[in-house]
Each structure stands twice: as structure tokens, then as C-alpha cells.
Design brief:
Blueprint (H helix, E strand, L loop, with lengths): L2 H16 L10 E7 L2 E9 L6 E5 L8 E5 L7 E4 L4 E6 L17 H11 L3 H8 L10 E6 L5 E4 L4 E4 L3 E4 L16 H12 L5 H10 L3 E2 L4 E10 L4 E6 L2 E9 H5 L4 E4 L8 H8 L7 H32 L7 H25 L3 H4 L16 H22 L4 H23 L5
Antiparallel strand pairs: 1-2, 1-10, 2-12, 3-4, 3-15, 4-5, 5-6, 6-7, 7-8, 8-9, 11-12, 12-13, 13-14
């Protein structure tokens, strides 16, 4: 990584520390069915990703092998081990936590989850293992563990909850804050429970039909449920579905895959072309396009430098001209551009740090942000960009500034217009 890249990333991280973490509740969902000693588990992973994968990690005699599913950075979002223990995660809004004094710190969340799957055979062992840890790193989510006996454990950041229903479903609702599940009005949850209550069936096909009823599809892109995994905990079978298509599936036998050693599959490559997924891939964001990432990050650096030039120029002009300073129209233009650039310098880090913006818009994604007015920044920047362009054209026509001054105004206007076009493309202007 170059010095420039490191500096840009450091700036983004610094701004990320200034503003509290942003969160958005993603519509993940699960169900479990236990009938006559057979337990089947289904999971919908509702996420935008072009890197979804399934991978297998073999045991070594002292640890169990397991299959995992996930996205970027190989984080094990969910999976099943050789003992038939299954888990997956849900995103939640953070909450005020109980005291974690005296508990072990979690240095690597992914390694902790893998340690659970390598060493635990049932949810009782999961409970004994996790209760010793400070799980505050999972405060924006929860995990659901289910073993082959049908026992299940919900793991929140400071609460471990045993449940024993023969069949149930779970969505992005905190169990520790839900007294009566019959009053949960989330449509996909109610659809799932209606199906689960309608028949006694622990087949993988029926479990898949429940997950089909719980799938998510949002907006014009149809993004939502990226993949669905169905687990037969007794037989060690995994059926995988992709991008809301429940007509096509790929089956894996855990023991057969583990015998091949550690390996992975790109999930999309396992399935025939999917029109919905192709449309999703065509939609570009800084999270799926390095070019867009560096365009935004680079424009923030350039705008910051140009703003520094404007500021120095205005101070020098004020000290030199005193009261005459306030009669110059260029003073008001540069002040106007400084305000516009400030708006852009607040917006760009959000665009680089918060992926939900591109799928839910600004208003639907800034739940924890302290200044709700930020949702109007794209529109304000758009209006200001057009005004700045008009002023800049006048300066160029009148040749009323130095080459350096005119160049700065021109570069600034180009950057503003480019960002205006991107905001329009991502549909976040209004």
C-alpha cells in the first residue's frame, strides 16, 4: 500500500472515529424444525455482496471440521460442524449493555466463532464456552446456535437465552426485549410461523419453502436474500440456494467435503446465470468497485487541499484589504465554496464507510447518526454544485483571477459535478 493510500485510509478511519458507528437492521432470517429426533435448520443471508462463498475447514483429531458461509474477509457468518451444531448471525441495533467486568476479552470475533464450532458439540457446551467471554464486540448483532437434538441458544452481546420449541423462526428482533412473540408483526416472521404451524414436516424441502416465504427483495435491484442454506443436522447435508431462486439448489455432504481438506467455492459460480444477480452486479458502489472507492477518497483529499487554499486566500485578502474585503463578490463565492466543500467532506466518509446507503438511501441508513440533517447533504451539494459551476464559468469568461485561482475553481467545480452525478446514480439526492 502506498503512502497516499495509507493517508487516505487513515483519514477515513479518523472521521469514522469522530462520528458514532452507523447501523441498519438487515433482514436476515432463520427457522428450525425438530420432529421425531430430526432437526432441520434454514437460514436466509440478506446482504449485498459479490463475494459470497462457502468453505470447508477440516478437523485435526482434537478439533471438529466444519462448513462455513460468508462474504468478505472470510468472516464465518454461519455454518455447521461435524456434530450437527448449526449457527448463523443477525444484525441488530446496538443496546446499552450489562456489566462485563471480569470476562475474557474477544480479540478476534471470527476466531472465537470458529473455536466454538471446533470444540462444541451442542448448545450446552456453547453456553459454557461463551459465558466466560465479554461479547460486547457483537453488540450490533446476535447469533442463534441449534444442535442436532433440537436444543437452541440465542447469543446476544450480554445475554444467553435457551429455547426449546420444536419449531420456531427468528428475525432481526432482540429476544431479550421480546416478551410475547405472538405480537411480533414482522411480515416474514408471521409467514414463517404460519407455515411451521400448518404441518409437521422436517424435510429439507419444507424447510426451504419456509425460507422462501421469509426471503427479502428490496427496490429496483431486487437485492435482499443473497443465499439460503438448509442444514440436515443428522445427516450432515447442506442444500444451498442462490439469490432468491428456490428452483435451483446445490447439495453438499459435509464429511465428503471435509475429506478433501480445506477448500472453498464461490457461491455464484455454482449456479446457472441469474438475471436478478446480474442486475445487482451491474450496480456499482465504492464497496464493489475500487475505482469508485479511490475516486471518492481522492476527491475528498483534493477538496480538502483546495479548501485550505481558499481559506489562506481569504485570510490574506482580509488582512490586506480590511473593510474593502467585504465588497468583493469573489469573497462570497469562495466562502460559499468552503461551505459546499465542508458538506462534501462530511458526506464522502459516510459513502465510504456505510454500505446500506446505496440500498436504503440516506434517510433509511442513518439511524444512529447524531445529526439527522446529513440526509439532506446530497441535495444541498447538488444545488451548490450547479451554482458553483455557473460562478466559475463567469470567472473564466471575465479572466478575473490568476491561473492558479481559476484552476482551483475549475477543479473544485468538476469534483462537485462528478459527486452530484454519483449521488444521482445512487438515487440519494432526495
Amino acid at each position: 500500500m502506498t503512502l497516499i493510500q495509507s493517508s487516505i485510509l487513515s483519514l477515513i478511519c479518523f472521521i469514522g472515529l469522530i462520528f458514532p458507528p452507523l447501523s441498519h437492521s438487515l433482514a436476515c432470517s432463520m427457522c428450525k424444525i425438530t420432529i421425531d429426533g430430526k432437526t432441520t435448520v434454514g437460514n436466509n443471508e440478506d446482504m449485498w455482496s459479490n463475494e459470497a462463498k462457502i468453505w470447508f475447514e477440516a478437523g485435526n483429531g482434537t478439533s471438529q471440521g466444519a462448513v462455513y458461509v460468508g462474504h468478505r474477509n472470510d468472516f464465518p457468518q454461519g455454518g455447521m460442524n461435524e456434530s450437527g451444531l448449526v449457527y448463523d448471525g443477525f444484525t441488530l441495533h446496538p443496546k446499552a449493555m450489562s456489566s462485563t467486568r471480569g470476562k475474557k476479552a474477544v480479540d478476534h470475533p471470527a476466531l472465537l466463532l470458529k473455536k466454538v464450532m471446533q470444540s462444541c458439540r451442542n448448545v450446552a457446551e456453547v453456553h459454557a464456552f461463551l459465558q466466560a467471554y465479554n461479547l460486547s464486540c457483537f453488540n450490533s448483532g446476535m447469533f442463534w446456535f441449534i444442535d442436532k437434538n433440537g436444543d437452541h441458544l440465542i447469543v446476544e452481546s450480554d445475554t444467553l437465552i435457551f429455547r426449546n420449541e420444536p419449531h420456531c423462526a427468528l428475525v432481526n428482533v432482540r429476544p431479550s426485549e421480546t416478551e410475547d412473540w405472538s405480537k411480533v408483526t414482522t411480515p416474514r416472521y408471521r409467514k414463517a410461523m404460519a407455515l411451521l404451524n400448518s404441518r409437521q414436516d422436517s424435510s429439507m424441502a419444507f424447510c426451504a419453502s419456509v425460507m422462501d416465504a421469509m426471503k427479502a427483495s428490496r427496490g429496483e435491484l431486487g437485492d435482499g436474500t443473497l443465499y439460503t442454506s438448509i442444514y440436515d443436522t443428522q445427516e450432515g447435508i447442506i442444500d444451498l440456494y442462490f439469490y432468491q431462486d428456490f428452483e435451483q439448489s446445490v447439495r453438499f455432504h459435509l464429511q465428503e467435503e471435509l475429506a478433501k481438506g480445506d477448500h472453498f467455492y464461490d457461491i455464484a459460480s455454482l449456479f446457472p446465470p441469474n438475471a436478478g444477480y446480474e442486475k445487482f452486479l451491474a450496480y456499482k458502489t465504492p464497496f464493489t468497485s475500487k475505482a469508485l472507492f479511490w475516486l471518492l477518497a481522492g476527491s475528498a483529499i483534493v477538496v480538502l487541499l483546495i479548501s485550505g487554499y481558499y481559506f489562506v486566500f481569504l485570510i490574506r485578502k482580509l488582512l490586506k484589504e480590511r473593510m474593502a474585503f467585504f465588497a468583493s463578490w469573489q469573497v462570497y463565492l469562495l466562502s460559499f465554496l468552503l461551505v459546499t466543500n465542508f458538506l462534501l467532506l462530511v458526506l464522502i466518509p459516510l459513502l465510504l464507510l456505510m454500505e446500506p446507503i446505496y440500498y436504503f438511501g440516506m434517510e433509511g441508513s442513518i439511524g444512529n447518526f447524531p445529526f439527522k440533517q446529513v440526509q439532506y447533504f446530497p441535495l444541498l451539494i447538488g444545488i451548490c454544485s450547479l451554482a458553483a459551476l455557473a460562478f466559475t464559468i463567469q470567472v473564466i469568461k471575465q479572466r478575473s483571477g490568476s491561473v492558479l485561482h481559476t484552476s482551483m475553481l475549475s477543479i473544485n467545480s468538476v469534483i462537485l459535478i462528478i459527486n452530484l452525478g454519483l449521488c444521482a446514480y445512487w438515487n440519494i439526492l432526495l
